[in-house]
Each structure stands twice: as C-alpha cells, then as structure tokens.
Amino acid sequence: MIFEGGSVKAAFHATKDLAIEADEHFRYTVVWVEGDAPFVCIEPWVAKNEALNTKEGLILVKPDKPVVQEVNFYLENKS
C-alpha cells in the first residue's frame, strides 16, 4: 500500500495507533509484507518507484551538499 503525504496514522493494535511523521521530501509511505511474515515493512519514499525512469519527484543531491531528512514513528494510545 502506498500512502501519499508526509504524515500517516494507521490502526496498529486494539489499543494503539501507529503515527508516522516525515519531513517534506518524503512524500510517500509504503507499507508491505512478504507472504506470511510476522512483520510489516514501512518505507518512507521521496518518489514513486518509476521515478528513476521518469525523473519525476527525484531529489538531486550535489556533491558536498548533504540532504538530511527525518522520519519519526510513534505508537499512540487510541482516544
């Protein structure tokens, strides 16, 4: 599943929600699971996977000019 936008909130447990807050460049959050694995993968993305071909949404990083971004994951009590 792909969620668009920097912040995502999803049901995690009967009593908890998972909240994800990402900096502006992370425009997509991808959530996936492989088969019957006992875990899920959560990936902040700056662009969709075809962006390497279309160049849409890519961040071009210049030499010696790092780009620092932050993603925070929280478990919150359901209200």
Descriptive overview:
This is Aldose 1-epimerase. GO terms for molecular function: carbohydrate binding; catalytic activity. It comes from Heyndrickxia coagulans. This protein has 79 residues and is mostly beta strands. The protein has one domain (2-77). It has one helix at residues 51-54, and strands at residues 2-4, 7-11, 16-22, 28-32, 41-45, 71-77. A hairpin with a 4-residue loop joins strand 2 (7-11) and strand 3 (16-22). It is globular, with a radius of gyration of 15 Å. The mean pLDDT is 86.
Helicity level: under 10%
What are the secondary-structure elements, in order, as H or E? EEEEEHE
Computed structural class: mainly beta
Please describe the biggest sheet, giving its number of strands, its sense, and whether it closes into a barrel.
Answer: 3 strands, antiparallel
What order do the strands of the largest sheet run in, or round the barrel if closed?
A: 1-4-5
Strand content: 35-45%
Q: What is the overall shape?
A: globular
Poorly predicted regions: none
Mean pLDDT: 86
Radius of gyration from the alpha-carbon trace, in angstroms: 15 Å
Cα separation of the termini: 25 Å
Total helical segments: 1
Question: How many structural domains does the protein architecture include?
Answer: 1
Strand count: 6
Primary descriptors:
79 residues, three-stranded antiparallel beta sheet, 1 helix, 5% helix, Aldose 1-epimerase, Gal_mutarotase_sf_dom, GH-type_carb-bd, catalytic activity
Sum this structure up briefly.
The protein has one domain. About 5% of the residues lie in helices and about 40% in strands. It contains 1 helix and 6 strands, in the order E-E-E-E-E-H-E.
